[in-house]
Design goal:
The protein is α+β, with helices and mostly antiparallel strands. About 25% of the residues lie in helices and about 30% in strands. It has one domain.
C-alpha cells in the first residue's frame, strides 16, 4: 500500500511537471492556500478514527494537474479489513449500522466542502440519506466504493494539491487545497 501511494505521488508529480509547468516566463513557483475546511469528531470512537486517518493518508499530498480530475474512490481504494479499515457506523437504508470503513464520509465531506470553497467543478457528489452532525447541511458527500463517489475537476488554471490530516489528539479533520502558481 505504501509503495502504491509513493508510486502514485511520483507519477502525479511527473505528470504535473511534464504537462503543466511550462510557463514560459515564470522563474519560480509558490503554493498558495485556496481552501480550508475542518470538521470535528469524537475522540472515543477508535475504529471510526482509524478509518478517518487511513482515508486522509490516502488523499494527503495528492496532486491534481490543471484540468485533471479527482475521484475519492479511485484514490482511497476499497475499504476492507485487509487494508486496515475497521467496523464503525455507516448509513444503510436510512439506518446507522456497523460497516467496514465507517466514518470515511467525514473525510470526503470535508474535502467536498473545501472543494466548493475554491469553486472546483464538482463532477459527482451524493448527500447522505440522513443528516450528519459533523458538517453544515448541504456540505456532506457520502461515498461507497464502486457505487457512490466524490469526483471533481481542477479548473483553477494551475496544479493543485490536497492536504489532509486527521488529528486524533484534538478530534479535528482538516483539508487544505493548495494551488501552485508561477512567480514572475
Amino acid at each position: 500500500m505504501l509503495k502504491k501511494s509513493i508510486l502514485l505521488l511520483i507519477l502525479s508529480f511527473l505528470l504535473v511537471t511534464m504537462f503543466t509547468f511550462n510557463y514560459s516566463s515564470a522563474t519560480a513557483f509558490t503554493e498558495v492556500e485556496i481552501a480550508y475546511a475542518f470538521t470535528r469528531f469524537a475522540l472515543n470512537d477508535v475504529n471510526r478514527n482509524t478509518n478517518l486517518e487511513l482515508a486522509s493518508k490516502a488523499i494527503d499530498y495528492y496532486i491534481i494537474p490543471n484540468k485533471g480530475s479527482f475521484s475519492f474512490n479511485d484514490v482511497v481504494g476499497p475499504r476492507s479489513s485487509s487494508r486496515g479499515y475497521k467496523s464503525a457506523n455507516v448509513i444503510i437504508n436510512n439506518k446507522f449500522v456497523p460497516g467496514i470503513g465507517g466514518g470515511i464520509c467525514q473525510v470526503s465531506s470535508t474535502l467536498y466542502w473545501a472543494a466548493t470553497k475554491c469553486n472546483l467543478q464538482i463532477l459527482e457528489r451524493h448527500p447522505h440519506s440522513l443528516p450528519v452532525k459533523y458538517i453544515p447541511k448541504g456540505k456532506d458527500a457520502t461515498v461507497s466504493y464502486k457505487q457512490l463517489d466524490l469526483r471533481f475537476q481542477n479548473n483553477t488554471g494551475d496544479p493543485i494539491r490536497i492536504e489532509a490530516h486527521t488529528n486524533k489528539n484534538n478530534g479535528i479533520q482538516t483539508i487544505r487545497i493548495w494551488q501552485r502558481v508561477p512567480k514572475y
